Amino acid sequence: MLIRKMLRDMNVHKTQFISIFIMSILGVYIFAGVGSEWYGLRKTVNNYYKESNFSNVWIYGSDFTTEEVNTVTNVDGVTGIQRRLSLDSVVNLENSPVLTLHIVEEDKISKCILIEGEEFSVDKDGIWIDSLFAEARKIKVGDSISVTSNGISMEKRVMGTVMNPEYVYAANNNEMIPNHANFGFAYLSYKAFPLDIPISYNELLITTNNTNYLDMEEKIDKALNGRYSVFLSRNSMSSYMQFDSEIRQHKGMGEIFPIAFLAIAMLTILTTMARIVNNQRTQIGMLKAMGFKKRRIIFHYVSYGLWLSLAGSAIGAIAGPLTMPYLFYEAMQTTYTLPEWKPAISFSIVVMAVISVVVCSLATYLSCKNVLKDTPSQTLRPKEPKIMKQGILEKTKLWNLLGFNAQWNLRDIFRSKVRSIMAIIGVLGCTALLVCAFGMQDSFDDIINWNYKQINIYETQLNLSVEATTDQIQSIIDDYNGEAIMEGAIEIKANKIKKSGGLLVTDNVTLIRSVNANRNYIDLPEDGISISYKMAENLDVKVGDEITWHIYGDERWTTSTIAAIYRTPMAQGITMTKDTFNKLGYTFIPTSIISLEPVESEVAGVTSTWSIDKLTESYETMAEAMNILIYILIIGAIVLAVVVLYNLGILSFTERQRELATLKVIGFKTKKIRRLLLTQNMWLTAVGIVFGIPVGWWLIDYIFAFMGGTFDIMTVVSVTSLIYSIMGTFLLSLLVNRMFSGKLKRIDMVSSLKGAE
Questions:
Q1: What are phi and psi of 16, to 5 degrees?
Q2: Where does the pLDDT of residue 315 fall: very low under 50, low under 70, confident under 90, or very high at 90 and above?
Q3: Is residue 296 a contact partner of residue 320, using CB atoms and an 8 Å limit?
Q4: Assign residue 470 a region: left if phi > 0, alpha if psi is -120 to 50, beta otherwise?
Q5: Integer Cα distance of 740 and 657 in angstroms
Q6: Are the C-beta atoms of 426 and 640 separated by less than 8 Å?
Q7: Alpha helices for 488-599 (secondary structure H)
Q8: What pLDDT digit, counting tens, does each position of 455-507 carry?
Q9: Using an 8 Å Cβ cutoff, are 128 and 160 in contact?
Q10: Which member of 61, 76, 97, 141 lies 3.0 to 4.6 Å from 117 by CB, making a disulfide possible if both were Cys?
Q11: Rg of the chain over CA atoms, in angstroms?
């Protein structure tokens, strides 16, 4: 009997219960969908690292000897060590793509995963190349390729195509999104290297059972007597850091967005069930009089929220992992390389589903517990009307200056606080999601404008060969009216914090400008070093503080005082002039020439040429990859607004049906009453928008906080985006108001005005 009663009640109030059902689905769907996506990525990459015996530490230096390898092997905490020589080489193909060659004695740490061909072997004279590079360049197993590095040319047969855990994220210096046609990696046995050329191993790959990398660095530094240039832990390795930041970003998004939907579901249950229970006081009294125990009646009403939330949570928990992860994977595959892409179910999804059911059931219980405390005789009597008191505003002279429309709506808002708050929260969520979606698009568009129109104003960047002569460099500068710069990788230490970054040395450069934290142009000092805003923030330093730094490949550390702080969206690190660099005992060796002139032909001494269009292309690709998130946010905003506002509109209409019928009786036309309802709707929408805009701004900051230390992305929301967000929210509100206000014509005047019996 009670089940039939529940189904009948749900049918009568189907709009409210459908909204509860939808919100339960959406809350768990987003959490489970995004949760299974990031957890699947975490599980896949961890298995990848485990299968390939991914290195914990990389030591960079020069000519590591067998004795040094044995010494490090005996360090407490070291479980494995392997030498290798890594060189950048140019492949004899169109556009001269770059391959990083790894010449190894064995393949036991950071091992290659075979995709096609023969397994790697140190006894075979061939080359194993990056599978994505091979695919982009249409190179097949069995083909021969010619590579040149440091004046050494080799032609090798491709024995196989491979993946490697060090290249999960593998973008070249000038790219944000990997271009596999221009950059890749390859592995060779030390036996395949020309016999007449001695191998000077410049890297040590180390696995450890101690993840206290500061402790490990001290021990290894002591073992090598400081004879190395860089100690790089897994947590500082660019590929590992970038992918880990991506996973944490998705995890953060998946945890925060469902809150809005579950909060709305809970508030909807509270208001809906409170009204149902109050309207069914007499039925509850009859059930008590018939012998139904209080516990059974409580469970009957709690089951309204229990079964709906249970069904919604189950659908969301199943549908989320089956659909949502695949929306992200296609875009992510343009940036990252993994053996497989598949979701995985974590225990947190089950916990979230249980929380959703418990919260909705608890909300149902709270809405009906007071009525169930009454005795059967008390419950059989209609509830005493709530004594309405004049509000503070009604006692002021201002109240009398307001028209009927304003007075009627203000009184209704103050008397129906929960319903009004729900409307504001629904509009707030809609506006916040729209601002977040459009603002993220604006922020990524701003990176291109900031980096390539405000800071870097050159048209072409020519990357120089390490073999380029002084005469060739000067000829390029003269022919293209160019300016020389030197770029490199460095390590920086301050306040017991160590970070990897970039070095930029300029020689009377005018095509690279500097801005401060507020994006206003500044002139960097001729003497002293300048540090980027994000790097200064990461190291907790300011102008006047000292930092210690060194160039990769150079064991010498230099202590410098910060003379200025500049801001850039990319390449966090330090910059200085050629004179300052030379005074510190270094030699300025240009690595690139920048010019305002386009370069369309090959130039002697240049390995690659990048136009401004090519440089911005990777940024645009990354922005396109974010579009899927933007679409999800916009769809979520629309669903949230429509479901919440329509549900509240129906609820408000039902609660005020007697009042609306009275207005019609005393002569108010339908059009006038519709305008009356619209006024309140617009007021609550306006309040929700005011609070929603800063929340949307905060959401963008929250997402960008997971971008890692490499990127300094400023939150930018254009006036156009704000207008779109505000107008979009208002239009949705008007649409929903139009949907339910048509019910005014169908009010049953007799039943609405009929007194309680």
A1: -65, -45
A2: very high
A3: no
A4: alpha
A5: 13
A6: yes
A7: 533-539, 578-583
A8: 989 989 888 887 788 889 999 999 889 999 999 888 899 988 888 888 999 99
A9: yes
A10: 141
A11: 33
Answer for the pair 629, 441: CB distance below 8 angstroms, yes or no: no
Concatenated DSSP letters of 360-406: HHHHHHHHHHHHHHS-HHHHHSPPPPPPP---TGGGSHHHHHS-HHH
Give the C-alpha separation, 402 to 399, whole Å: 5
In the chain, the amino acid numbered 534 is K
208 near 64, Cβ under 8 Å?
A: no
Confidence of residue 756 (pLDDT cuts 50, 70, 90): very low
For residue 203, the SS3 value is: strand
Query: For the chain, what percent of residues have pLDDT higher than 70?
Result: 83
Amino acid identity of 172? N
Closest of 141, 145, 161, 127 to residue 91, by C-alpha? 145
Beta-ladder partners of 78: 208
Two tokens, residue 569: 């969206």
CA–CA separation, 662 and 562 (whole Å)? 76
What gap in Å lies between CA 535 and CA 538, rounded to an integer? 5
d(Cα 43, Cα 565) in Å, to the nearest integer? 40
pTM for this model (two decimals): 0.78
Q: Which residue is listed with tokens 């072997």?
A: 121
Token pair of 612, please?
């401004």
Angle formed at CA 572 by CA 570 and CA 573, multiple of 5 degrees: 145
DSSP conformation class of 742: G
The H or E element spanning position 359 is helix 347-373
Cβ-contact 227, 221 below 8 angstroms: no
Query: How many other C-beta atoms lie within 10 A of the C-beta of residue 383?
Result: 15
Helices (H), 611-669: 612-625, 627-655, 657-665
Q: Please give the Cα distance from 244 to 144 (Å, whole number).
A: 36
Best-predicted range by mean pLDDT (162-176, 563-577, 654-668):
563-577
Q: DSSP characters for 304-351?
A: HHHHHHHHHHHHHHHHHHHHHHHHHHHHHTTTB--S-------HHHHH
Question: What six digits make up the tokens of 338?
Answer: 């993994």
Instruction: With a cut of 60, say whether residue 337 has pLDDT above it.
Output: yes
Cα–Cα distance, 476 to 731 (Å, whole number): 58
